[in-house]
């Protein structure tokens, strides 16, 4: 899928990260610049019977960031992350809820596991014949996430929750971009959210794709992912509306592409990923030489990093732009991950490139600049945000400074 409409321009005007390394734009950007490692022993999952014990959890209490939290107390943690991230993004965009209540605002949020923990709790309660089941059922659907966001601002626009796993928040941003370009809305809240649950932890543990402690993308001897959590939200807006209200514009969405490998369930196909990157650049009317930074999917697994490099090389040749993985700092937050990558891209466009930390000995089979020395001062003009998911669902966005 790629857009062919070159009419309306779509810009990013608000950022809302709720992450293991920082909550809010200022804290998140500071963590990216200083190379904070958000890894720690998991407290939200009982790991007693598991070999792996580490992950990246949100330490802040997000309920204080949610107006009228009592109305959403029965919702699950992913909804709470999404609500908190939305509030931060709207505040960053200078938009009061009262100004958009009752107006057409669309919401697109991605997730991998949605409210699966509520289902676990409900099944346990059912087995133990505990009361309260009926009240719990309505909150167990993944659609609760985007619905809660629109309910919190009083809008009756589209509420779409996307289950494309680890590429879902890029897909959410694409849906918002397309809706604005089509004239369906002038403002969209887009992002992703997921929480550390026993289901996510056990899945990756069972696959044998989890690292023992630190996530080390592009490093020799890398062992895999760290499960993580959080909520990422961005405000997308029609350019003319943003200009009329004097909004700060972080970037313009230049283009995108999505495709499916239709191949292996968990190992990405570098030919298909390369095709997706080429298509995204073509859609954005950007040449490979104009790209100044790639925010990699960079999970830290042997196969993923290797295949992502091969795809990058196929598109950009032997001297690609700098590539880094913020998952080295904050783990893999599943459905929220690409949204965090998009927010990191805004930092690259305005101040400099976030690093890949934990690179003690770079894999000689991946001979690219992974920004291993630390934050690199100096903004770039065009960036690419990669996101890939189980099932071969690839989603790539291109952002650029406003011209």
From TrEMBL:
Give any Gene Ontology cellular component. cytosol
- A GO molecular function held by the record: 3-oxoacyl-[acyl-carrier-protein] synthase activity
Q: Which residues form the Ketosynthase family 3 (KS3) domain?
A: 7-401
Which Pfam families does the annotation name? ketoacyl-synt, Ketoacyl-synt_C
Which regions form coiled coils? none
Q: Which UniProt keywords apply?
A: Transferase
Q: What pathway is this protein said to act in by its record? A: Lipid metabolism; fatty acid biosynthesis
**BP terms from Gene Ontology:** fatty acid biosynthetic process
Q: Does the keyword Ribosomal protein apply?
A: no
Q: Which family does it belong to?
A: Belongs to the thiolase-like superfamily. Beta-ketoacyl-ACP synthases family.
- Kindly provide the name given to this protein in its UniProt entry: Ketosynthase family 3 (KS3) domain-containing protein
What species does this protein belong to?
Answer: Pseudomonas lini
